[in-house]
Amino acid sequence: MSLTSERSAIDFGPRQRIWRRGPFSLRASSRAIVVCAVLAGLSAAGGVLALALGSYSISLAQLLDVLRGADDSFARTVVLEWRAPRIVAALVFGAALGMSGAVFQALTRNPLASPDVIGFASGAYTGALVVIIVLGGGYALVAGGALVGGIATAAAVYLLAYRNGITGFRLIIVGIGMSAMLGALNTWLMLRADLEVAMSAAAWGAGSLNGITWQQTGAGCVIIVALVIGVSALGRSLGQLQLGDDAARALGTRLEPVRLGLVIGGVALTAAVTAAAGPISFVALAAPQIARRLARTPGITLAPAACTGAALLLAADMVAQHALPRPLPVGVVTVVIGGSYLIWLLIHEMRKRA
């Protein structure tokens, strides 16, 4: 065999594109870029469709007039004040959940490791629930409670799972146990609360974008954008961690500071969404794996996972509003879809290891 034919038989992986601007650089595969562009286009198209759909239907021409500022009728209120914040929230919150799931699945190298499965989302829910029931605070206090609850739960799971290091399987088992305990605690808190507060907390706990305002969406977006920038800055180190600790250390990665930063960033992303919309399950679990299969990347990557999460949550919210006999909280739809996906994933992993 000639040298040319031997080289052609070697798989060098997908083609990479690199951008450099001063001290900053960005590397991504061509297919991942195309996948992100297609998902962004689908999300934009879905957003436009969601602006027009509803009990007060709006034509495309009327929608264009509203967006250009040429229509000051009731349609403007419906589009810009009622529907637009919900759509922006679905896209941004979905991207945050997708990126959060990608962080934990990449850190543990396990497709089951997502914040809602290993208890971090339950911890954020518990923190927010304590603030709602005990303090009766607004968004800032609830967000703070969700963040403290999520980080405290992450610290507890990490310490209980640590045995001369962290393995993905042990972290998941401990996290599932912690999630069950927090579920019982949340139920007890609801039973001890006043009826009106308990009903309000229960509606919020289903995970819903109903009635979300620009104030809530804007505050959540500012926090999430800051967190996305911070987590993205650690994206290269996250890719090296997926190669294993020894390989990452050999490439110059400071393991524990990077892990700590990624865990705090991932928990904070989930907590920010939980504070604004309640716990929305399974988007963080499914989005990274769907994105990995679409982009055909060897590991979990952040940008495709975020784009997939945004498209998933927007689609789930549209189903919750328009495809069912009665509108439901989007968290109910994601649980139904995500539960089916989890069963498929467990069967797939068992067959792969058999």
TrEMBL record:
Q: Name one Pfam family in it.
A: FecCD
In its UniProt record, which GO terms are filed under biological process?
Answer: siderophore-iron import into cell
Bilayer-crossing residues are: 32-58, 87-105, 117-135, 141-161, 168-191, 197-214, 221-239, 259-287, 299-316, 328-347
Q: What membrane topology does the UniProt entry give?
A: Multi-pass membrane protein
Record CDD domains: TM_ABC_iron-siderophores_like (cd06550)
The record's subcellular locations are: Cell membrane
What GO CC annotations are associated with the protein?
A: plasma membrane
In terms of one coarse class, where is the protein primarily found? membrane
UniProt keyword terms in alphabetical order: Cell membrane, Membrane, Transmembrane, Transmembrane helix, Transport
Coiled-coil annotated spans: none
PANTHER family named in the record: FERRIC ENTEROBACTIN TRANSPORT SYSTEM PERMEASE PROTEIN (PTHR30472), FERRIC ENTEROBACTIN TRANSPORT SYSTEM PERMEASE PROTEIN FEPG (PTHR30472:SF24)
**What name has this protein been given in UniProt?**
Iron complex transport system permease protein
